[in-house]
Amino acid sequence: MNETPKLNSFRSGPDEDGRFGIFGGRFVAETLMPLILDLQDEWNKAKTDPEFQAELKHLGAHYIGRPSPLYFAERLTEHLGGAKIYFKREELNHTGSHKINNCIGQILLAKRMGKTRIIAETGAGQHGVASATVAARFGLPCVVYMGATDVERQAPNVFRMKLLGAEVKPVTAGSGTLKDAMNEALRDWVTNVDSTYYLIGTAAGPHPYPELVRDFQSVIGTEAREQMLEAEGRLPDLVIAAVGGGSNAIGIFHPFLDDESVRIVGVEAGGKGLEGDEHCASITAGSPGVLHGNRTYLLQDSDGQIKEGHSISAGLDYPGIGPEHSWLADIGRVEYVPIMDHEALEAFQLLTRLEGIIPALEPSHAIAEVIKRAPKMGKDEIILMNLSGRGDKDIFTVGKILGMGL
Amino acid sequence: MDKRFADLAAEGRPALVTYFMGGDPDFETSLAIMKALPSAGADIIELGMPFSDPMADGPAIQLAGQRALKGGQTLKKTLEIARRFRADDQHTPIVMMGYYNPIYIYGVERFLDDALEAGIDGLIVVDLPPEMDDELCIPALKKDINFIRLATPTTDDKRLPKVLENTSGFVYYVSMNGITGSALPDPSVVGGAVQRIKGHTQLPVCVGFGVKTAEHARAIGASADGVVVGTAIVNQVASSLSEDGKSTGATVPGVEALVRGLSAGVRSARLVAAE
Ligand SMILES: Cc1ncc(COP(=O)(O)O)c(C=O)c1O
């Protein structure tokens, strides 16, 4: 058999300029260009370096706790009365979400490049915590930029980052959410290029970030595919994940992209509804534009100014999306749908009560989509959902909305 | 633009390149600022196009952009500022500076046509490195609009040729790794960097980022073909505004006085004839 990727493969992108169709690219200031090219060289070497791969695997097993389980959600399945529902339990990873998969990979790259300082942006704080964690593990100082609004609604994670020794810098520009944190992280990076590694938390940004973040997160889908074959002897019919910047989603989607029988759905934050501006459904309600180093679907006005967006979940509160998702949407391989704040909140509660798992608000959006689809599917069909993080960080937000005094 | 630099070289002094934000704090005031710049001593004008997410700019220019956007500024209106200025002044080169997305959304071809019609001489688009030349640089050059590229301390000798390849008008040397509005680095280090770039190109080299006073302008102008001042002008505008952010009687005169001082600075910077 020929080993080269199939000509019609959905898994061969990006091209050498970092393009997925018209999306992706390297739209950055000249100061950053040499760094990004260095990173690309280093990544190309690391990809095929057995020592790097071995270290990644070792840390995955002993530090993160991989493989994460594939769990048959029996009671939720029974309750919905349709397709069999499986969760990929990324919320059981060290630090409580999928974000650590990427952080371990990137800090190994930073170390190879001789960088001595780590910066990161964070929305929900999960990526900030994961970055602060690996920085502590490898003895590097870490600065985390976080929108001031998020600092407030994700207070437990701010505290965790500080305990881990990271400096958390609140960003007040704009609406004080993930987009603004990313701007500020880029400003820091431009200023401290020599010493600093920018550990991007999602599958977005300039090439090679979307590719390398995807590759580090693809461990999710690769494991899940094997686990599913073992558990059911076949592939799932439907794969679902929530999409913020898109890292947990591309991580579980990518290994299934060439399996024609597998339908794939990404869930965007519909916020308070798509009619106004209070949502983050970049693909469903946005248009292609250029922000944060890549061309992708964005929430923007007719003058090309970026809108703020809104989501109940800080981790989805971003007006863009990784470029590979934009491409997968355009070619029709993946379907993207919105879920509203209140639907996510109901899903959060249902899962907590039925399965004894408190999910983060981000994957609660994916659960809400499962709740819609499972009853319409046959009992012999299978849904695989990425349970990307646990909800400890969100209990205050949810408690406040539900009127529980905490 | 080439003629302007040739004339200045004959005069034996560097150019004063002044940046201001289109639409800050409102359309009419920023048009008045632009019209006041040449007689105050500006040789080339950089007209800032506001963007919601200016990733390479410090707080001063970020805030200026926010004021402009809040005042209803759009790319169309920024082109209109240039067009109105050009009606009275056919000589001062205008370079539009900003980020790519508003241009991309406006439509590249339509933008270039409208920019030509408005009398624009060049473009500086911060987030379009040479790797992205097909987007805007090549189409602009085809229409005889200069595409001015930034070179930075991270642009080493290996990379410089690539950066300079499709650059025209002048080279904008960013004096340090950082965002606009940072402190001025050592002029002698900057001088060395300018010489390094000149080893690779015949184009004039202008230096920006960190120049705030006539003193700075003189020091940097000793080695560079031009000195770019931006944050200081934008700060001058900001400090003149009323509490609710409206322009006052001091806004335009304040900028004029600042630019006059800077102009005296570049005029006293004797170019050392290295050749
Ligand atoms: C648990 C969890 N899931 C999902 C996301 C969204 O990010 P991404 O789309 O990159 O997976 C976040 C972001 O903070 C998160 O914490």
Automatic annotation (TrEMBL), chain A:
Keywords: Amino-acid biosynthesis, Aromatic amino acid biosynthesis, Lyase, Pyridoxal phosphate, Tryptophan biosynthesis
Keyword RNA-binding: no
Bilayer-crossing regions: none
Protein's pathway: Amino-acid biosynthesis; L-tryptophan biosynthesis; L-tryptophan from chorismate: step 5/5
Residue ranges occupied by any Tryptophan synthase beta chain-like PALP domain in the UniProt entry: 65-389
Protein name (Swiss-Prot/TrEMBL): Tryptophan synthase beta chain
Positions bearing N6-(pyridoxal phosphate)lysine: K99
Recorded catalytic activity of this chain's protein: (1S,2R)-1-C-(indol-3-yl)glycerol 3-phosphate + L-serine = D-glyceraldehyde 3-phosphate + L-tryptophan + H2O
Function per UniProt: The beta subunit is responsible for the synthesis of L-tryptophan from indole and L-serine.
Any Pfam family hit: PALP
Similarity field: Belongs to the TrpB family.
SUPFAM superfamilies for the chain: Tryptophan synthase beta subunit-like PLP-dependent enzymes
Keyword Amino-acid biosynthesis carried by entry: yes
InterPro entries with a match to the protein in the record: Trp_synth_b_CS, Trp_synth_beta, Trp_synth_beta/beta-like, TrpB-like_PALP, TrpB-like_PALP_sf
EC number: 4.2.1.20
Organism, as annotated: Rhizobium giardinii
Signal peptide: none
Domain of life: Bacteria
Quaternary structure note: Tetramer of two alpha and two beta chains.
Cofactor: pyridoxal 5'-phosphate
NCBIfam families named in the record: trpB
GO molecular function: tryptophan synthase activity
